[in-house]
Each structure stands twice: as structure tokens, then as C-alpha cells.
């Protein structure tokens, strides 16, 4: 089959994943990879996108280990191409998989690497990386009771949330606005928890 046919299977997988048919989506991605790998020269960028989509579907299905493998395959495939923006997205997704697996130190390092290479991305994609990184730091510092570090991280999270809210307000379609609200809600709840924790540690706070 041609790369165009492989692309159709990838698009089919995306549609199935949107509908929640994750196993069917993974089957479609697997077929896309099979066809891509039959072509010479190997279309590395196309293969990388399919592996990234595979990893995203695995994360949705609660298969963090399989997701990590897919994102690492995506990054390896992309090494043959110059697209720094896509690499930053795949790194962010790899960080999410590492965090799900409890490997928080590795996840934080990967998020930081993703952010360093995110200049080529659109503002919304950059925001997703900033939210993932700042949220992970906040969760770790809350768990450790590291209030000094939390005082440094919370402004970063709040700045990302403000930027995200401004992006949401620019969107016209109600569905798109709701999507961004769903994206921002976990980080907003985390920021509120961090604010409350810091407020409780103030010496002048009477409980």
C-alpha cells in the first residue's frame, strides 16, 4: 500500500479514538504502521505521527507502559526529520506517560526539554506543555510539603492558567470553548489547593 493509504488508516484511527473506540483505533494505527514500513524510503514523519497517536490512545485506555513505548518510537522516528515542534509535542506526551507510571523525576526533565523546544508551536500547544510541567511540579511539592518551592512554582501555574483563559475567550465555537475549559479545570483545582496550603502555613493565619 501507499503512504496515502497509511494516512487514511491513521485518520480512521483518529476518528475512532474521538468516539472512544480505542481498541479499534489501535488496530487502525497498527495497519497504518504496517503499510508505512513497507515503503522506501521510509516516511519517518508519517510513522512518528502514527506512533504518537498510538501512544495517546494507549494513555486514554490506561495503558501507560504501552503509551511510553509508542512515544519513544515516535521520537526515534522523528530523529530523521527536522520538525522541532512535533518533537516538543511528543516529548510532552512521553512526560505524561512517565508521570502515569510514577516516574516523576524523569517526567519533569522531559517536560522541561519539551518546553525548551516549543518555540515553533502555536500558543495552545505551548500552553499544554506549560500546564503539564507546572502541574507536575505543584503536585510533587504539595506531596512533599515543600512550601518554598511551591511559592516559586505557583506563579508559573497561575500565569499559564491566565493565558489559557485568554485563549479560551478568543474561541468562537462553544465546543472548542468547553474543550479548553475541560483542559484547564484540573490545573485550576491544583492551583486552588496550592493557594490554600500556602495560606495555612502563614504565621498570621488563624484556623
Description of the structure:
This protein is mainly α. It has nine helices and no strands. The protein has helices at residues 3-18, 22-37, 44-60, 64-78, 84-100, 104-116, 123-144, 147-170, 174-201. The mean pLDDT is 87.
Task: Give a short overview.
The chain is mainly alpha-helical and 207 residues long.
Q: Using the CA coordinates, give the radius of gyration.
A: 19 Å
Oligomeric state as shown: single chain
Average pLDDT, all residues: 87
Instruction: Tell me the structural class.
Output: mainly alpha
**Given the C-alpha coordinates, what overall shape results?**
elongated
Helix-strand blueprint:
Elements: H1 3-18, H2 22-37, H3 44-60, H4 64-78, H5 84-100, H6 104-116, H7 123-144, H8 147-170, H9 174-201
Helix pairs in contact: 1-2, 1-3, 2-3, 3-4, 3-5, 4-5, 5-6, 5-7, 6-7, 7-8, 7-9, 8-9
Descriptive terms for the model:
207 residues; mainly alpha; elongated
Amino acid at each position: 500500500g501507499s503512504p496515502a493509504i497509511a494516512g487514511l488508516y491513521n485518520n480512521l484511527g483518529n476518528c475512532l479514538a474521538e468516539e472512544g473506540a480505542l481498541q479499534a483505533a489501535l488496530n487502525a494505527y497498527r495497519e497504518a504502521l504496517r503499510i508505512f514500513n513497507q515503503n522506501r524510503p521510509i516516511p519517518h514523519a508519517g510513522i512518528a505521527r502514527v506512533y504518537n497517536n498510538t501512544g495517546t490512545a494507549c494513555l486514554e485506555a490506561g495503558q501507560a507502559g504501552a503509551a511510553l513505548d509508542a512515544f519513544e518510537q515516535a521520537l526515534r522516528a522523528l530523529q530523521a526529520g527536522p520538525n522541532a515542534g512535533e518533537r516538543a509535542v511528543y516529548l510532552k506526551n512521553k512526560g505524561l506517560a512517565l508521570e502515569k507510571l510514577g516516574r516523576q523525576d524523569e517526567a519533569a526533565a522531559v517536560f522541561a526539554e519539551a518546553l525548551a523546544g516549543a518555540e515553533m508551536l502555536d500558543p495552545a500547544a505551548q500552553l499544554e506543555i506549560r500546564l503539564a510541567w507546572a502541574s507536575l511540579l505543584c503536585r510533587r511539592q504539595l506531596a512533599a510539603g515543600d512550601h518554598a518551592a511551591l511559592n516559586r512554582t505557583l506563579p508559573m501555574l497561575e500565569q499559564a492558567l491566565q493565558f489559557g483563559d485568554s485563549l479560551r475567550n478568543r474561541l468562537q465555537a462553544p465546543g472548542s470553548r468547553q474543550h479548553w475549559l475541560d483542559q484547564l479545570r484540573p490545573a485550576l483545582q491544583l492551583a486552588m489547593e496550592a493557594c490554600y496550603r500556602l495560606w495555612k502555613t502563614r504565621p498570621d493565619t488563624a484556623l
